[in-house]
Please model this.
Amino acid sequence: MKRLSNIWFLFIIILLSGCTKDYRLAPPADSEKINITVKVPVELEVETLEVMYRSSTCKRITHGASGQRVEIDGGNGIDMQLQRQGSTDLFTADVPKDGGGACKWHLANVTFGVAYANPTNFGESVKYGAGGGVVVMFDHNNSPQGGADIKVDGDVIIKRDYFPWVHERFIGGYRKRVSLAGRGPIYLMYRALNARKVYFEPILHSDFLVTSQGTKIHKIGDFIKFTYPDGSVVAESQARPDYYKLQTIRTGRASYCFSPRYYSRCPDRRPQLLPELLPDKEMPGYGRYVVADEWGNAVVSFAYRLFGKNGEKFEGKSGIKGLTRPIPDSAHPLSKVEFPERLW
Model:
């Protein structure tokens, strides 16, 4: 009787295992790919590409603040290595949009970036800290690092300046880290629902090193001391170097020149009209351009004057996302672009 019970027990296990859903990824061979490309400076190395897929078929059960049952999309992550293209400084990977499998996985987000290849070049005990990271979200879910700060309609093109930053920390044990200091947080967070290409070009200004020392005891009024490349020493309450100060030291230009929000105040502006014409969804036969600063960041409330191929004039100020007013297709290609100080 005991032997018969064991047989039935094994039979039940087999039945249950046969009903278990297969959570594995299985991208179809013909799946559309998202191309990820990173242009890597000599002193840096590309980090592992972390790819997250999600599924509305295979839900994950969690609980809300009141203990209620909550179903959310399931997640499945894999790591990929970006491959160098020949002897160039370009590293790429093609990521399938369709994750396939019984769960019908779809690409949700990718996380990647650059880091110092040899932190010990800054000292024997120096380790790498943070900075130089990018997250791109391809659906409406947030990433493991949080939600998006920047929304992009098409492909994602990122060019950012970075500075070497060596920080010494004393409280809780001595640590020395070299990080990449740039504009914004550790990760640049994008949402790009329609992107097919992601290009990241970090520009490293190795000759402009900023160092800092943390406090040695907890004391109100004591702040981190930053030593900037020009020799100035500043005690600041912020935890990271002043990016705009670093840019001013590097270029001699006013800090406004490096802020998309205040670019209109820059005394020596170098704006541009991005080359891609974006079709206007509400006005067939019309399109809009994007007014941007010299680094490709969209700027708003910026005066422009455009001339069509037959000399017709279109002027105004850039609106949300740096967009111009709708321009008829018949005016393209443009014959002239001006950015006057004021229009009237």
Observations:
- Confidence is low (pLDDT under 50) at residues 1-19.
- DSSP finds two helices and 26 strands in the chain.
- The first helix runs from residue 2 to 19.
- Residues 21-163+170-203 form one domain.
